[in-house]
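Forwarding the complex inputs:
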Amino acid sequence: MRTFQFFLVLAVLLVTGLTIPATPASATLPADPTCMAPDNDPDPPVYYAIDLVTTRKVPGARLATGTGNVTFAHSPFGVALTPEGEYAYSLAISMEKVRLKEGQVLDAWVTTPSLDQVVHIGRLNASLATSGNVAWNKFLVVISLEDADSEPGARWTGPIVARGMSRSGLMHTMAGHGPFQTEPCSVYGYR
Amino acid sequence: MIIRPPIIALILFLVPSIVWAQDHDTHAGHNMDMPAMVGDSLVWRMPPMDMSMPMLPGMESSVPVTRAFLPAAGMDPMQFPEARPFEVMNVADGETIHLEAGLVRRTLGNQTLVMMGYNGQYPGPVLRVQKDARVNVHFVNNITMPTTVHWHGLRLDDYRFDGIPGISQAPVETGESFLYELNFPDAGLYWYHPHMREDVQQDLGLYGNMLVDPLTDDYYAPVNREVTFVLDDLLLDANGIIPYGESAPTHALMGRFGNVMLVNGVTNYSLDVSEGEVVRFYMTNVANSRTFNVVFGGAPIKIVASDVSKYEREQTSGSVVIAPAERYIVDVLFEEAGVIEVTNSVQAIDHFRGIFYPYVKSLATVNVSESPVGESHAEAFQTLRTNDDVIDDIDRFRPFFDKAPDHELELTVRVNDLPLSIMRMMEIDTLYVPPMEWNDAMPMMNWLSTGEQVEWILRDVNTGLESMDIDWTFQKDDVVKIRLFNTPKSFHPMNHPFHIHGQRFLVTNIDGVENPNLVWKDTAIIPVGSTVDLLVDMSNPGKWMAHCHIAEHLHAGMMLGFEVTEAP
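Prediction (whole assembly, two chains):
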């Protein structure tokens, strides 16, 4: 079942997040005004914004909140698409209510729901913001606490501070539910 | 028996292919016994759909509330002339040409169909003219329905030749004629099509290109060959064309997606080129609803121009995303000999399983021979030109980029009297709606929704007026910012290709992100959830309209009228 897989993924993330402890330090900084759009410009789509939810396991980040704003990557066609047909997005990450200790930084990552591919989006700046690109239709966003002295590797090594899922993660199988009660999930590959 | 890993991999690879290959089958799997029919029939029959998708209970016997309609139902296809491939008509300044809409016989695969054509051709003839030319078109209607011709993208001097029934002209009844007086102020690629029941007439083949040549030889980079590339789809089953709605279109929720892909009116379009050849494709999407993502088998693509101009700067791309009514002029370099399959490559949604899956359909074949091209334009292809003429033209509009919107539109939908099962299913299934619908993921529900039950709406945010109740007035040379928001909170959100008649516009901003490479457009995609700013150059006085170019959405009300008056 997809639901089971989702919670399994979250469980893996939470366990991973418990492996490296962190301690609180500096206060949250205000947003960088240079990153804010002029008043006349429209905003990124609220509908596709990704809520970044704290794991509540990392000291200094138990009340953390954040947002991943999703817009289309630049394309001559308005809608950006890869040759495989996946959406190409720009992902702007911002976090709040995180207190970092000296030598600690936050890294933003995206990963597929099955965690088989991971891409580093960027290291959050002093305003706790970063941005990058993602070309998957369905993905998880992971914010991890890392050592400022080490370069980001292939995937996160520190504890997970917050995570979220693209809006498309709300899609679910109809098998076995409601009007499709008579359609057994197992027939469609779900356990 | 031991099954080795490669064999398991092969089985895993083949099983999904078998499942997805069934989407043109009949409906034995859905317990629908179809009557035996030969040729076009006016009996409603369920549209083709993915046989692995279970039927929503209670839908097996449902049919649209409108009667089935086909323009040539009951007629012998052999009484109509067989359509022939399109010709290029080089039309001189001041010339008058003849254009006739008629019923034609087409053979697609092993099916003989009655369709429509301009001058008996598929697509209609390419009208090739010089920029700034003036041409008269003596149009005759010989189809069985009233019609008009809209000259899509042309900034006509006189709105009375724009082809809008009730605004610019009366419908041309069967057997009647109309003289269109056209002018061609902008170089590029345009197209003509009916503006009455496009869901039927355009779908059945009434479309053709206009290619407006620039005045200078170096307007575009040199290429070895130029081809028009008209993308379309058609909804067929084993018994022919799935009927249309008589009093109103079917497929009003998502538009009518076809299951058979057409390029230049055929299912097997192919092109023979030499190794190293640079081909310029003049691409037009004439489909009712489908947005294509065209991939040239990995061959490099250079994006040169779109609807009404070149881009400020040429750029490369891995594919071409083209919505209904849009045009793109792209150069493709075929570097290596071989057979290249041109595909529509998208990720479709299986709403039942809640997943994306690759949906790749072959569009055409390019056979690249081993004999090298005579004159190589590869170096020119690799050079990305900056078009100072376009930049200079746009410069006088840049001071307006940051102005507040003059008008704001919300794009939404209202439904009534849809079957209860559809209403409930849609509410459950819209936890997530994608920015774009790339295929008909709910064929039965979509087919059952008609223009009598679905009303697509353009709502003026400031006045609350909707669609044709909106009555905007501008003065010639006004620069107007229109902000469109495609709300994701409606009953069934969907992308809309928004078209403005008689004027040109720039897409200056999408979701707060400035567009770094501008091009003059007449049609632009408005994805679900997005806010798009259009800066419109109100250059042409007259009475015009703007609308969604999904044919079924247009007929379900998604249009507005506006007037541009002469400056005092």
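The domain at 225-385 of chain B is CATH 2.60.40.420 (Immunoglobulin-like).
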